[in-house]
Structure to design on (279 residues):
């Protein structure tokens, strides 16, 4: 496997709520803010982080099918959440934990606000290639689908 | 009143949301060009024929994608052919960076909404 390291994806967000509320919103409320990226064929119905170490992180689609994204490694309200992200370059769940990347979210309350530090690391463990990922990132229908949408948008704007 | 922004993203000192790659993929035309190249390497002229933007605009988009490490180019005969950077991993990073940037912005909006609703009650 290619052992080149990929830099982690890091973000810091400050939110005007307590750490407990932020942690609960992030986990139990995950489906209320998740932007809708998903891997199943059907539309996304619900994305879920189970509230316990060893829990599942998964999506349930409108047709009832479920796809795992990863597991909960640490569930420590209100300060720390650690998940695995196990979707490889083909956006398929890889059950092998040696191929798992990690997502760590830290919640630090300061003066009634909460600083949320996010890190997605060990991405190289997913072992994907750009070509495969890039192909899978395209919208349904692939390149012809993109052009169709483009033509539609261009016509609408004209 | 202080506005709390989203800061971070990987790939350097850019204080804007996400990294250079996130910015590169944020423009819908540029993203479509990137996804097109994922299916098939192409020259600038070919891309200009496919997209409803001018050839100089396509060239500019390609420059941004190249500077972000998302595409590379090579001379093939008299043409410059662009392709997704098969170093591999850069594209994954860029994709996840963009995805999380959008997701966390959504989280922040939801938290701000929660805060506003609390103030009312």
């Amino acid at each position: 496997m290619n052992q080149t390291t990929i830099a982690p994806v890091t973000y810091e967000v400050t939110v005007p709520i307590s750490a407990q509320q932020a942690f609960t919103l992030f986990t139990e409320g995950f489906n209320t803010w998740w932007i809708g990226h998903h891997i199943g064929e059907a539309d996304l119905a619900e994305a879920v982080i189970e509230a316990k170490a060893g829990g599942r992180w998964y999506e349930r689609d409108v047709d009832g099918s479920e796809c795992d994204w990863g597991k909960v490694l640490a569930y420590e309200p209100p300060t720390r959440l650690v998940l695995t992200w196990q979707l490889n370059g083909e956006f398929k769940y890889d059950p092998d934990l040696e191929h798992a990347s990690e997502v760590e979210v830290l919640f630090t309350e300061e003066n009634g606000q909460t600083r949320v530090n996010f890190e997605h690391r060990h991405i190289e463990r997913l072992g994907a290639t750009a070509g495969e990922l890039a192909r899978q990132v395209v919208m349904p229908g692939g390149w012809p689908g993109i052009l169709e949408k483009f033509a539609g948008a261009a016509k609408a704007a004209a | 009143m202080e506005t709390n922004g989203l800061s971070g993203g990987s790939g350097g000192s850019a204080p804007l949301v996400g990294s250079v790659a996130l910015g590169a993929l944020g423009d819908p035309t540029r993203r479509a060009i990137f996804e097109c190249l994922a299916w098939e390497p192409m020259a600038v002229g070919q891309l200009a024929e496919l997209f409803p933007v001018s050839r100089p605009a396509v060239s500019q988009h390609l420059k941004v994608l190249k500077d972000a490490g998302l595409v590379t180019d090579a001379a093939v005969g008299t043409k410059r052919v662009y392709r997704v950077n098969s170093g591999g991993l850069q594209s994954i990073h860029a994709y996840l960076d963009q995805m999380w940037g959008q997701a966390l912005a959504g989280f922040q909006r939801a938290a701000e909404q929660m805060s506003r609703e609390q103030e009312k009650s």
Summary: Chain B touches chain A through 48 residues (CB under 8 Å). The first strand of chain B starts at residue 6 and ends at 8. The longest helix of chain B spans residues 89-120.
